[in-house]
Sequence to fold (974 residues):
Amino acid sequence: MADAIGEADLGKMRGTQWQNLYLAIDVPPTIWSADVVGNPDQGAYNITFDGGALTDTAEPSHHYEVWFGSTEGGKERGVTRIRSGALPNWAVAGGTLRVAANDMDLADNDHITIKQNIRPTAILPSIDGVYEDEDKSYGTENTEQHPLARIGPPACGFISTAEPDLTVNFWSDDEDMGGSGLDTWAWTFAGGNPNSSAIAGTAAVPIPIEYDTAGRYWVRHLVTDNNGKTHKRYTQVHVFDKDNNPPIVYFSIEGLTGDRNNGSWRCTIKVNEACTEGAFPDLAQVVIFNEGYWNGSQDDVGYGWTHRENIMFVGYIVGDTVTKDPYDSSVTFVAVGVCELMKNITCWGASFKDASETWHHIPNMTLNLSAFHVFTEHTTLDHIADIYLNLDVITMKYTDLGEGAVFDQVKVQIGEAGRALLMSNSKGQIYLEPDAQLSLIADRPATELWTMNTEDWRERLDLGEEMDGVYKCCQVDFIGFYYDGNDPKVWGSLAPNRQWPTGSVQKVTGVRTEIQDDANDYAGVYEQNYNNPFDNVVVPMHGYYPVLDIAPQAYLRITLQAADTIRGLIWTTVRHVIKSVTHTWNPEGGYILTDVALSQEIGSATGTTNDIPDEDPDPDPPDPDPMPEPEPVTNAGVVFYSSEHITLSTNFFEDEPTEWKDITAELATKIIYKVVVGNSQQAFATTDDGVWYCPNILAVTPAWSCIQTLTDARDETGDASANFRSLEITSGGTIYLIWHEWDYELKGHWSGNAGGIAYTLWNQYGGCLIYTKDVRCTWGIYPDAVNTWFAAGAGGCGGAGVYKHGGGDFIQVDPVGGGGQMATHVNDGYAVDWNGVIWVADTYNVKWSETLKCAGRFGMDILGGKLLFVDYDEHENLYEDAVKIADGDAVFGTDEPGAHATRVLGIANEIIWVARDEIFEVDAHNIIVWTDDLFVANVVDKTGDYFTEIVNPYAGASGSSGSAGNAAAVVFEY
Fold:
């Protein structure tokens, strides 16, 4: 095909250059303000207000940013957004403002401020999963998808005394997602002339809008399809007066790089003009734009969106990176592209199904439609960034998303089935498309920018490591899947058929392939990519090449003569795909140098069919040991907590010094009884006023929200003495239980859903009702035995004893036989009844010998899945599963209560232990870690002074008394 970059622009980039860069920070204006009326409940969605003054004629829109503060224009109470759905008439005095999910505690006469801005954030569904955005009912959204509006990046330009008008050209690249065709278009250009338009516009025939006054202007684009479905995109126009109101000029840039492996662009910016930290708010949009002189003439040269060639970078300020130098008053901050920002946007989990009844039923579901739903219903990103969904059209039956970063949900949990790259380019547009290097030759991108030669680079190319026939991958073991509307099909392939003499075996699973031949071809492609000898060709360019970007993927051809490289290679227009681009600006010299890293296009190879045997209809009985050996765990962290503080460390098991972060946040005024951590870094806590939930303890600013108040629980049960004390959560994160202390009768349950994870239960020491998604199980009682005394504890006042590792279903066990008031089983887990009997097997009635019971002191190999306990009768011997591994005295002390042991890394033989009693003459309040040989006095204190002085000295385990902070160590995998 013809080169995408024309000879004229290529000649400019190869010629003499001079670049002036400018910086625009989008500080949104206030367009409405009012006062809170009354004292809304904490976390209220509907806020009554009085007053209300619209200060801008822009259209009132959902998702606009809302600030709440005790002073006018303040936001110390919290920041949220207007809810979607039917909009309240907040443009007039008096009424109700509907806002998104929050945990704000507002007071009468607090101030409300609405900003003309949409923050990149998650949109949460209702707790029960019936609605999107709390109360948005399902209609035909998944059978008639709305279109995707795309209008390019923000615009930046100048007016001056000599040139009093700035013309900005607009056009749209909207996509019809519902298949009915696009019908109408409506533009609103605040401050522009004309101020509206009813055509789509094209790159060749755009919509010219004139601006004659400096300022920041809001642009809205609304597209409607033939089904009447609409979509809106917003952007800004920044007009600067060169004579009287210039943009930021005195600044420097460090590390302006776009990397497709990272999925985004980022840089560090230092502003040397007089300014304050407040001028650079968190999540403010940053635009770097250029006034370039090429061969002596000013012109805009660029690629990616016609009429925005002068836009060099669009990103967002990352929170906690804005710092001010006290010596020169400069301010430094980090700005990242939208895809990197997506890594800090946490979305709830969801299970999509090829059906047509609810929000998460997507008929004829494809990878693109799954990603479309996440972007448009679970985030606000589709309103502030162009989104291109270009994965292969592959039919999907199910798509399961775990709670976590929206970047991981889209790229990994959806996209990896289509070999996806998720990237945002330098202009802030999002692309989800197959990795060109992992695509079959016929499916690879067609765009070729130009053929590079010695005119384009300033010094010799770095061709990377020379392999000399040494393979990184000896063989690819590929397993592909395909769903044809009925049962899934599985295809296996090996490439090459016989392993290469060096390298490691790489397993590739989960890629969707329609036929066996495709699986063979993909296996060959993956093997070729792993062993690409020119995977990192670094080209130092002659000057500034703004046409280079990581997305959408495009090829550069390279021609080499033997004298061009030390190796003497000869390449004739060999294709390479762009891996990363770095621009280095020298503001004093007025020039920019570009470096580009390339990966040479791989060839094709075909693997060999590797038959996958069908499942044996009559398999051999399972191994009597239900717990498989754990896989090595490398990412393990520790949470310490007491009655007053919660802290975490992610390098506890690494070299000193251990780093700690306080995540108490909203629980700072509570009495903390128990903290547990599940998968995806979610955590639950019981306090003196209820049960609290944190969706991600590893977030930059972890936030806790109350999911069940003690007051409501007492109202529902009719028990004014009910108290929450402790809870447990399975390693799978799907079940947890609440203690209802000192009450032997079943009182009931509350039905709140914690982050889409589970419901709750409570009664004496353990629990009596469990809810896992939509399935209710009854523990240890018959339906007519609601007053049965039972416990999910161990040995009298032992701690709760429900453990799960991997998958499996809970089943009910007869509570009468053997005097055990409660016992239940997970297919590969454990439960302990009131008499201390440990139940474990692959059928409900198999248990360990009743003579081998668990005493009150026991723990769990949280990451490995094995039970650690001291026997009930002698209180001396330590067991791992049913095998004695040491004298209990060596680890727990004699008969002293209060030890809590948790095995952390089975392969490393490490135990973490919290104790109130003196152990080996080590400070009684420290955390002890045994390494190498478990049962000798090889003791390491990993807490330093932090735990002793700051957390709280009362932190030892103390059985099931329910004392605040009674078990201070939690181990989790991340």
In short: The helical segments are 7-14, 338-341, 367-377, 406-414, 516-530, 710-717, 888-892, 944-951. The chain is about 5% helix and 35% strand. Residues 516-530 form the longest helix (15 residues). The chain has a mean pLDDT of 75.
